[in-house]
Amino acid sequence: MTPAERARHIDRQEYEAECRAARERALHRAEARRQQAAARVAEWIGKEPPPSLNTRPRPSRKPKLYTYNGASKSLSEWASCCGVDYQTLARRIRSGMAIEQALTMKPRARAQQHTVNGVSKTLAEWAKHVDIKYDTLIARMFNGRTLAEALAMPSGRWRGVSCDLEGSKGTGAPHKSGPK
Fold first, then answer.
1. pLDDT level of residue 106 (50, 70, 90 thresholds)
2. From the DSSP assignment, how many helices (H) and strands (E) are in the chain?
């Protein structure tokens, strides 16, 4: 055996011994903890359990009251009695709106319906119906087209090689009737 092989062999033996010792220490420590836990359980048998975090009463927080027309109520109470969604009311208050305005404000209008060939839909629904993006539909209408024209346009751009040029000009693609 060469000196290098002998050194590797000794290193391997030392490493295995260290691993065995670490494993034995870990098992010994685990056994000691199990015995400590068993002793604690045996000590507590027959005694009243200590109060845990779950059994302690939580301190209750009083809701903030908002006064409108002489009545003071929480946001959830105002929302239920006025028929306003709680999240909507909370968002209005967070944005700095007065409680009077937040409670009496009318809900936003629904999207406007547009009729084409006797069928009424919103612009978003029309865009989905013809499988184009909503922004594409708006851009077409912004460019002066009516809704019916914007919906009738083909979706997407026509990309690729033009085939209607002569074979010796343009892209070099063969003409519809073939090369001349």
1. confident
2. 7, 4
Residue length of the chain: 180
User: In 10 A of CB 73, how many CB atoms?
Assistant: 17
Pairing of strands 66-68, 71-73: antiparallel
Q: Are 103 and 69 in contact (CB under 8 A)?
A: no
Q: What local confidence, expressed as pLDDT, does residue 17 receive?
A: 94
Quick one: pLDDT at residue 39?
87
* Structural domain for 21, as ranges: 1-41
The single residue listed with the structure tokens 């909507």 is: 88
Residues 95 and 121 in one domain: no
Q: What is the pLDDT of residues 12-39, one digit of tens each?
A: 999 999 999 999 999 999 999 999 998 8
Instruction: Report d(CA 36, CA 48) in Å as an integer.
Output: 20
Judge if 33 and 3 occupy the same domain.
yes
Scored b (16 or more CB within 10 A) or e, 75-108 reads beebbeeeebeeeebeebbeeeeebeebbeeeee
Q: How many domains does the chain have?
A: 3
Mean pLDDT of the residues in the chain: 83
pTM summary value: 0.34
